[in-house]
Amino acid sequence: MAEFHSSLKIRKDALIGVLCGGMSSEREVSLKSGRNCYEALLRLGYENACLIDVTRDIAKTLTDRKIEIAFITLHGKYGEDGCIQGLLDILEIPYTGCGIKTSALCMDKEFTKRIMKTQDIPVIPSVIINDPDQLKGKEPELEYPLMVKPVCEGSSIGMSKVNTFRELEKAVELAIKYDTHIMLEKFLEGKSVTVGVIDIDEKTIATPILELRCKTGWYDFEAKYTAGLTEFILPAEMDDNITEYTQNLAVKAHKAVEAKGITRVDFIITENEAYLLEINTIPGMTDLSDLPAQAKIMGIEYDELVGIILNSSTYRLFFDKNLLLSKSAYYSDSEK
Questions:
Q1: Tens digits of per-residue pLDDT, 251-301?
Q2: Mean pLDDT across 168-181
Q3: Which CATH number does the domain 8-97+302-332 belong to among 3.40.50.20, 3.40.50.300, 3.30.70.240, 3.40.605.10?
């Protein structure tokens, strides 16, 4: 895919709608991300930025408020899976981050794995079931312990770690509440780490690696969003070679799915390998979120990171000249 460097700038008086909340199970986290990004935009001088809690009337809201740029901080279903991106494309409103295809693919853990395999990026063995009845009288092909995951959910919602068939049945009953497709994945002992990937102008760079040491046994929803339940090691205590290798895999994965703006790529690091778990296309931006902390230790403060994300909205205009003609929120370096 063509490299892209936009000379377009965003006017300080542009009508920027920070989309947050929404209708997914990650609503509360999204509200926190949205509030933080909104306040950062105001500090950056975008005086007409506004916070929008997304409902089923979002198309009317965006039209009525004459929003010129959508800053997406929606997590999970309808926000991170390509739905809101498709709506914004129809409304011809530029938006931050990844497009429809990338968002949809990365929301689906199974399809993410399929793409990673084509790029020789290691993934953990797993199987998919579509109905709890598939388990009746039949042990899974994989050895315990297992992770049970809704295929299209985030923030570890609906996930469980199981050691027996009975636990597996209960875990599937929980997961099926969130998705009709359930992934059974081999549980690997190792370091839980995450790598941020940031597009800055023509460069795609990896952040320092963050290691997550959880008091809950694995990085579940409670550990992610409850202060004190996870020890964050930044940078991760890893050998230089495996560090560089993992960062390179994160950038390779980001490019393989044609991501734009920022992503956060999660891995399990064993003694001699880095296994990709998932790619998050709209990472959290809360006070406890990983990416802002990773960016900070490489010299990118929170507000600057928000500015980088905002600038990713120029990507679609770069490739759609007709869209640009109708957008007054941007100007080029050549304009006086």
A1: 999 999 999 999 999 999 998 899 999 999 999 999 888 999 999 999 999
A2: 89
A3: 3.40.50.20
**Amino acid at residue number 223:** A
| 163 in active site | no
The one catalytic residue in 25, 33, 155, 160 is 155
**Is 105-122+188-297 a domain of CATH 3.30.470.20?**
yes
Q: Say which of 21, 82, 97, 284 is annotated catalytic.
A: 284
Give dist(CA 225, CA 217) in Å, integer: 15
120 in catalytic set: no
Indicate if 7 belongs to the active site: no
CATH 3.50.30.10 fits 126-186, yes or no: no
Nearest to 147 by CA among 275, 293, 12, 327: 275
Q: Which of 17, 25, 26, 95 is flagged as catalytic?
A: 26
258 phi/psi in degrees, rounded to 5: 60, 45
Question: 25, 36, 280, 289: which one is catalytic?
Answer: 280
Q: Is 155 annotated as catalytic?
A: yes
Question: What residues does each domain of the chain span?
Answer: 8-97+302-332, 105-122+188-297, 126-186
- Out of 153, 199, 278, 290, which one is annotated catalytic? 278
Separation between Cα atoms, residue 268 and residue 67, nearest integer Å: 40
278 belongs to the catalytic site: yes
**pLDDT exceeds cutoff 80 at 83:** yes
d(CA 231, CA 185) in angstroms, rounded, equals: 25
Q: Clarify whether 26 is annotated catalytic.
A: yes
pTM: 0.88
Catalytic residue among 192, 266, 302, 316: 266
Separation in Å, CA 218 to CA 145, 188, 223, 225: 12, 11, 8, 13
* Residue 230 β-bridge partners: 214
